[in-house]
Design brief:
Distance between the termini: 45 Å
Radius of gyration: 23 Å
Largest sheet: 10 strands, antiparallel
Structural class: mainly beta
Shape: globular
């Protein structure tokens, strides 16, 4: 097989800023211009609305807080910038609102900040109503003062993309909800767990990735945050004057048990990078090595979120944040039995991509000379995990234990 016969999809680079919206994924030969027509006529500008993923039920302490209000519009890539007036129709005695929200050119989201002073609420439960002045559209937010304080919990290890950092952790429970607060060196994350669902609490410039809502641009926005007793993964976006950033995932681990070690896995990928083009250019696996958190437990190696973390494919990946690679090790051999690849994107693979490999171990480096998968050369499903691309490139994983 020649490389040209292998699955070769054009994936446009997804930018890290809400201001410059990327083009959607386009298959070769479609002849489609993704830019769309210019939409600069004010009479035909799309109407804004409030994102359905705005947080509307907020439990508060005595400290002042900021809530990022997300507005949404249907927009093409050349749709003009537009500013809309906002007003606070209820709650003005304890809250203050940005009076405008601006959509950048081509942007589908805009943000405004609601600053809240719980000490001025007067009673335990109050509401604030935000309205888009020109339109009959409003968003109601309910604020409830909590009772009870935080309880110190065991520290967590945060994987920051290159290494692990110890973080202080506190929890509290109210109304069937368990809330977590993770802090360390000006870093703060809060999330709630209720009925098994995890939601990120807006703190500072961080919001739950659900607020982005544009999975056609960033499929990773569809990946739910995830929590177990062993580790937690949060899917978040950062808010700036330009809008929302691309989704990014953050991994937090409980301290390891005896005989277990965490590690950083440096991944040189031979499964996907050899056949995916970004901005019409192939990515060299050797020049695009990324890091993912890993755990060593005896002869078992687990790599967490292999195509999440800092992978160049992370924003394209709608796979669950709980995705892992499980690799069996001994002194000289490594076996990755057939398993889910941890990458999902319906425009790339419309089936569950499986991978497998057998390789060697030397000096903490695993080499899979022939990475295998269940994809035919034309990108269609194959019933067994014994296929390889036309030009075979190895998967190399260097394991660096964390002490």
């Amino acid at each position: 097989m020649k490389t040209s016969a292998v699955l070769l999809l054009l994936i446009m680079m997804l930018c890290a800023c809400g201001r410059e919206q990327p083009s959607p994924i386009v298959r070769p030969g479609t002849g489609t211009d993704p830019s769309g027509p210019s939409e600069n006529d004010p009479a035909t500008m799309p109407e804004p609305c409030f994102s359905p993923d705005n947080i509307t039920e907020i439990a508060t302490d005595a400290e002042d807080l900021e809530i990022h209000i997300i507005l949404y519009r249907e927009a093409a890539y050349k749709t003009a910038a537009q500013t809309y007036a906002l007003e606070l129709t209820d709650g003005r005695d304890f809250a203050e609102l940005d009076h405008e929200a601006t959509f950048a050119q081509g942007a589908k989201t805009a943000t405004a900040t609601l600053r809240v002073a719980p000490s001025k609420m007067g009673r335990d439960t109050r509401r604030a109503v935000v309205k888009i002045s020109k339109y009959d559209k409003s968003l109601t937010l309910t604020f409830t003062r909590r009772s009870g304080g935080w309880t110190v919990s065991s520290p967590l290890l945060f994987f920051d993309g290159t290494t692990f950092k110890a973080m202080a952790t506190e929890t509290r429970t109210y109304s069937g909800t368990t809330e977590w607060r993770i802090t360390g060196n000006e870093f703060v994350r809060q999330f709630c767990i209720k009925d098994g669902d995890v939601s990120v609490t807006p703190v500072g410039d961080v919001v739950d990735s659900k607020a982005y809502g544009q999975t056609e641009l960033y499929p990773a926005a569809a990946s739910e945050s995830f929590h177990t007793e062993a580790y937690t993964v949060l899917n978040v976006c950062h808010v700036s004057a330009d809008g929302l950033s691309a989704p990014m995932c953050e991994y937090f681990f409980q301290l390891p048990e005896d005989g277990v070690r965490y590690a950083v896995a440096n991944i040189c990928d031979g499964w996907l990078l050899p056949v995916l083009a970004i901005n019409s250019q192939m990515l060299s696996p050797a020049e695009n090595i990324w890091q993912a958190p890993a755990k060593i437990d005896g002869q078992n190696l687990t790599i967490y979120g292999p195509y999440h973390s800092t992978s160049p494919l992370s924003t394209l990946n709608a796979a669950p944040l709980s995705s892992t690679w499980h690799i069996g090790l001994n002194d000289t051999k490594a076996i990755l039995a057939p398993q889910d690849a941890g990458f999902a994107n319906n425009l790339v693979f419309n089936f569950n991509l499986l991978i497998a490999a057998e390789g060697t171990v030397k000096d903490r480096t695993i080499t899979f000379t022939t990475p295998l998968h269940n994809c035919n050369p034309d990108g269609t499903y194959h019933p067994t995990v014994d296929q390889h691309w036309g030009t075979v490139l190895p998967t190399i994983i260097e394991i660096v234990p964390f002490d």
